[in-house]
Request: fold
Amino acid sequence: MAGPFSACSPDPVIWLAHPGTPPLTLPAPWLSDAEQAIAASAGPARQREFLHSRWLLRQALAQVSGQAAVRCQPVPGRPTASLMPPGWHLSLSHCRQLAACATGMQEVGVDIEPLSRRSHWQGIVRRWFTPREQDWLLAAPPEHAHQQFLTVWTLKEAWLKATGRGIANNLQTLEVAADLQLRGDAASAGWHAAVGTAAGFMIALVYRAEAPHTPRCAWLEPPADTSAVEVMPTSAARDAAVSWLITTSIATEAR
Reply:
């Protein structure tokens, strides 16, 4: 389904965008002065990634708030919330081929990883994961082990973003069981998670809400004519096909 989402929808949404062709470039008058300075000082690859992610943040805010994209803006620094319009929580994840932005009226965290990513994941598991996670991941059948690792990794990354923490010494604060039951160290209740695959990527979302639900996920694509970005038209959204593995609540320390 194409077209803008319902304005002011409080439910968390994941927004996806491929880099534009041609890519966004400077000058970009829709950026804040601080963002302009960051983009101008970045190398070519980092600049393209930065412009793409800031474009996506503004388009996502326009979709959920009903405001014009050119007027939307994240807070300075790490874009965890909206400056204009106020009141929205944000989370951003990006790699060379894709960017993802999560929006919601409560805390959100999103992470994406290409399914083709190859790493020495066993060493990461042994060094940073809990003993119970090590037991089941390292014993997983080889044909499934890599995807299972990415499932756990993206859930942990999304959890840390949603709870406002870095990776260092915090990867064990969310434990993922072999049946994908989740336990986190948050002192408050109402935490939920979803993880699935789309377009060759693992996508995880952690969010606060009254109950878990299947998140909506949509594509937003930069315009082919990058000169149109100067006036920042609001892009049309189309639903993304996601194969969700789980949508579940996270058990926490809340009483």
About this structure: The mean pLDDT is 91. Residues 44-65 form the longest helix (22 residues).
